[in-house]
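> Could you send the Small ribosomal subunit biogenesis GTPase RsgA prediction when you get a chance?

Sure thing. Input:
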Amino acid sequence: MSQLLSHHAQPYSLGDYGWDEACEHAFAPHRAAGLIPARVVRAERGSCEAVTDAGTVRAEIPGAADHGDPLSVPCTGDWVALRPVATGAVPVLHAVLERRTALVRSSASRTSCGQVLAANVDTVVVTVSLAAPLKHGRTERMLALAWESGAQPVVVLTKADACADVPSAQAQVSEVAPGVDVLVTSAVTGQGLDTLTAVLSGTVVLLGPSGAGKSTLGNQLLGEDRLATGAVREADGKGRHTTAWRELVPLPGGGVLLDTPGLRAIGLHDAQDGLEQTFAEIEHLAQDCRFTDCAHVSEPGCAVLSAVEAGVIPRRRLDSYRRLLRENAYAASRTDARLRADREAVRKDITRHLRATYRFRERQP
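Output:
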């Protein structure tokens, strides 16, 4: 009888990784075809590590190098269908189930393609270190990514023990995170960890730059030092990339934790809805602007500019909103240009093939 091989025993079931009735329903056609459900816990080029009820297996991703769209490449958090194999062979990833949510940023290569950081995430924990100067623009970027993913963002202020004025810092971050819980934690004192655990649900991804304390926070949630941590440079508060890849780990109280490497670049990719939710107060005021296409620069009757002049909205907040809108629009235009170029390349290939066919026919006696 065929079976999955190359697995090692584990104390978890697929249910511990988030498998539920909705997953079972979506997987029904694949199960009828004799395939086996799994969840990707770590993805690499050409292969992935996936968890099944039989254990963790190394599976091949056929045609990984030929994926035209990086968004379709299997990533950590994906539910997949594996084809069982005979003894000694490597399982093959046959299909990726439709993603409920996806955390996407612009690719690190600065192309017009997006990169999926995590799939099927329920809660995005945006980590902000209180041991370094607050960078609200970066927090807004991460929140836009989180909202756009379809998951629920939570901002966690780490290293509270290293901050002289925690209430002020919390108030500042709360102003740039409307509709989002902003929690204060300290791995040294244990502050806020119970509150954080109570608000987390489902698959939880830790998002933030190196040195923000993601892995340390993750170890606190796991109750063990399972995730690698490293020291932070005192000169600039930056950390080294101690997390080299994304992987899933079940939480002791239920749910799944996904730790990610620190993000040096947080480019937006098709994040219009996420920006609207991140800057919800500006979007609300914009409804009262005289012109429906108001850019909030110098237009008469601009409700947003009036709020800035009255001190209701900080000028920095409006500048950040307009800057991120421009960046997102530019990324979208590049994507459209790439799609047009791809379609044109296909058209040219067809034309060349037809011309070659006609020339061949003309040479026939």
